[in-house]
Specification:
Elements: H1 2-26, H2 42-62, H3 67-89, H4 99-135
Helix pairs in contact: 1-2, 1-3, 2-3, 2-4, 3-4
């Protein structure tokens, strides 16, 4: 029962962030933070999609998807949603679509998926070693 609650919580958060990301694409202008080493908005894109990849990774881990799907599906979803957001910006005044934003979005989703994947990997390692200790190996 607790597992179902976590699944629905992660799913609701992932879907809410999808709507949030798409909504931001329709805004005419979004303020960004300027840095010396990155273009404006890259940090925000990366962090937003890192959280996005992490949420989708948790969704797929709770439905019992294999370890490969837990890693790959959030990256694909992040890529397609990032591409959709950039495509929307083609039609919004004072906005410009950029292929680099799609790359940053995908990298953020990949890093979030990797964090989710490593959490699963750690759980498997921990339980395997716990079983060894309980058997006296």
């Amino acid at each position: 029962m607790e597992n179902n609650r976590k699944f629905y919580a992660y799913l609701a958060l992932a879907l809410a962030e999808t709507l949030f990301l798409l909504w931001f694409s329709f805004l005419p202008s979004v303020p960004t933070v300027r840095t010396d080493f990155l273009r404006g908005g890259d940090i925000e894109h990366f962090i937003a999609y890192l959280v996005y990849g992490l949420l989708w990774g948790r969704v797929f881990s709770h439905i019992g998807a294999g370890r490969r799907k837990v890693m790959i599906m959030p990256i694909l979803i992040g890529f397609f949603v990032g591409t959709a957001c950039e495509s929307i910006q083609l039609f919004v005044p004072a906005r410009m679509a950029d292929i680099i934003d799609i790359a940053v979005d995908t990298a953020g989703a990949a890093f979030g998926a990797w964090i989710s994947f490593k959490k699963i990997d750690f759980k498997l390692w921990y339980h395997k070693n716990l079983l060894k200790r309980s058997k006296g190996e």
